[in-house]
Amino acid sequence: MEAYYIGIDMEGAACVVGTPGEGLSYGSANAAFAAREVLQEANAAARALFDCGAQRVILWDNHGGGVNFDYHQVDPRCEIALGSFHTRFPGIDESFAGILFIGYHASASTKDAALSHTYSSKTYQYYRINGRDVGEMEIDAAFAGRYGVPVLFASSDEAGAAQARASFAGIETVAVKKSFGWNAAISLHPETAQKRIYEGVKRAWEKRAALKPFAFAAPMDVAIRFQRIDAANAAKLYDRERKPFAFEDPYTRRGLLDDVTQLFD
What we know:
seven-stranded mixed sheet, Rossmann fold, alpha/beta, DppA_N, 2 domains
């Protein structure tokens, strides 16, 4: 049975720029639209997979607390992962042929990328693994890569799409907007974005056999820089020997890990 897993964030969807000073907070004007739009983008991706012969597709609602959508609007052929998991791509295993990123955003240190951050713009300045700034795409891809599952496709703004191509050789991407800072972009019309995602996923499916799983070289040298000193002090981060991450400076914790899953232990 050919199965695929679609991770759905919200900041990288068409016509989504959030609110200055707040990002894409619950209850903000752009958040309700973002939830509707990115779900239709995910449905377009799922439809492309089913049209190519997929027999199982899981949509994972992974923005914030993981309860963002009107689930009646999900393509009824899909399964839905939702809620507050303590891992990434929950339930993934070797039976999946690939993962896809819909509505993902660029990493925290990216310039001119709408709503760029890594997990929380209020908490983290950056995640750095093996000397390279990384975002949610790389970390999520490494989770899937543990099971031999590659990344097939990513949709985002131009900066996020470029990040995906730099990290995952051969990946198909669709840029739904060009960002001009954290809260500004020129976007495709939502219907155009959905059509391009559908077409992009079909292209990705055609070359799926050539794609390789993503992995960080081990041991992983992980440095996490926080926005606030008190957050750095409170963070429960443990290295591969189950010792607390060291302090590089008052804002930055650093340690060695054997496996990406240890980030969320």
